Amino acid sequence: MVSARVSHGAVLGTALGAVVLSLLAVPARAATAERAAGPAPALAAPDMTALGEALRSAVGQGAPGAMARVDDHGTVHRAVRGVADRDTGRALGIDDHFRVGSVTKTFSAVVLLQLADEHRLALDAPVNRYLPGLLPDDRITVRHVLSHRSGLYDYTDDMFADSVQGFEAVRDKVFTYRQLVDLSLRKPPTNAPGAAYAYSNTNFVVAGLLIEQLTGHSVRTEYENRIFKPLRLRDTFYVHPDTRMPGRYAHGYLTPDTAGAPLVDATEQTASWAQSAGAIISSTRDLNTFYSALLAGRLTSAARLAEMERFTRVAGTTSYGLGLRRRDLSCGVSVYGHTGAVQGYYTYAFTTKDGGRSLTAVATTSNNDTVLGTLADTLEPAFCGKPARHPEAASSAGPLGPVLAE
Prior knowledge:
The protein is of the alpha+beta class and 406 residues long. The protein has helices at 33-36, 48-60, 104-117, 127-130, 142-146, 156-159, 163-170, 177-185, 201-215, 219-228, 284-295, 302-308, 369-376, 379-383, 392-395; strands spanning 3-10, 65-72, 75-82, 98-99, 253-254, 264-265, 281-282, 312-313, 318-320, 325-328, 334-342, 345-351, 357-363, 365-366. The chain has a nine-stranded antiparallel sheet, with helices on both faces. α3 crosses α9 (201-215). It starts with a strand and ends in an 11-residue tail after the last helix.
């Protein structure tokens, strides 16, 4: 059973306007030099036909299901293709929960930037100031970690060298943060601190350790108290190390390395190998709400949002800040968010500079670069109103396999 639905409708007013954080002094949208450079290009209406065709292509290329939601200044557009469960044939639903992978990194960065607003953290201070002896190089700063410029080796490169065997070896395993850092430190650094951008999940494991050290609470508690509850993200969860997905969810299917081998249902796992680098579960609605609130200045001070938006170009149309990506589109619009890949799921979640239009697109497979590239094709119709192919989309994130996307 394959569903094919595209709908439009008004969205009820959200509670975002009621979110008031004591750390927020001025509107963040006026903070950065980039914002002051001039008005952004006018947005064309989303091309939902082209977006739906991209999702249809993703299903044809091996994703059991694909969906996208666009929230546009109070109007919601939805497109859904395929099934949520291959065994039962249940149609995928736009409100189904899914694992967001590295989109988690933005949540972790926001918590640390809020701590910086509270003067409990300095971005240019060494990580070892807060976690004495954790890292072998005192030059590695918090900023290096959040911008993937620490040089810390990505332990997941070895963990998932074989996608299925690697996954099955850790599916039910529970790691501590320090165990994951130790896995990274078995290998030499990829570069000197600050010398180069090199995406590594280890960086956001360190971010999780910093959150817990500075607050005395679990990352789950901090996510919930600082982000989930204030924004009323009712479909967003951090359940580690529980393997079960809460509520109604889409199954995620890992594509094996061997061509023609059957997909592996990877839905239930501890996600302990990822934690603060990639273990959040959410929905299309909630991710759009989150990124809209962030870019509109509702989660950090203007100064801290400006720090997030100090971008370094990492590919032809992609730049990276502090736990935040920027994608420059063909129509002159830049969008801000993150991508995610975890076993069984690919996610693209981006919003405009003012947070007024947001897209979350999901495909329920991983380790399939063709599907990943096709999912990237949802950005242009969502924000530019016309389809466009960007060949770098799959390659810019590196060898994703089943692990977390950049």
